[in-house]
Amino acid sequence: MAKKAKNRKELLKKPDEFLTFSGKLLATIIKYKVYAVSGLILLLAVVMLISGINYMGNRAENQAFVLLEKGMADYDRILADDGPEKAYQVAKNQFQPLFEEYAQKDAGRLARIVYAGMAYDAGDFDTAITLYQGALDDIGAYPGLKPFILGGLGRTYLAQKAYASAARQFETIIQGSDPVLKEDAYLNLGLIYDRMGKTEKRSEILSRFIAEYPDSTFVGMVKEKLANS
Length: 229
Known about the structure:
With 229 residues, this protein is an all-alpha fold. The chain has 2 domains: 153 residues, no CATH class; 69 residues. The protein is built from 12 helices and no strands. The radius of gyration is 19 Å and the shape is elongated.
């Protein structure tokens, strides 16, 4: 056991600190409506972050992650007492240095996604869309998060009743090779087509959902919806 721990530390110089930062970061991204996912997807996303973000030994990156974690913790505290709008206003001052001073660092890029979720919760949809779009433009830094960003962007357009724009985001998720959030994208597309009055496309997408996810907990609800159409 001791030898195994030693080898791990040789590989990841400060593993406990690294895993704590990565785990908290991923959990917060999901919490702030970039998207809720299953335990398996969450595990894969954590692995992606651990393998893709290397801030150990990088002083500026480390400082940026500290600021990000503090901003998230303060947001949580204010959110519990005063709600999302007040928490969002306070977070704006704390996240600004991350956007300005650490824009090219992993923490700065990820702060943009986290803050987009905060903007969504506060009803500032225009800011959320701008931030999500910026994250897509910078997707090369973390391609594994593309479905999360597209999902957040799709939900924001949906909240604005910009149904065509929302549909494009979820269609992109479905057409992609990454299985992350595809099940959710099918359901959102079904809802969007229903609201657009495109009943044939709604029935088509929901039928594909049933075929591809026969064990989903939502299959019964979807079948009932199709039967009553």
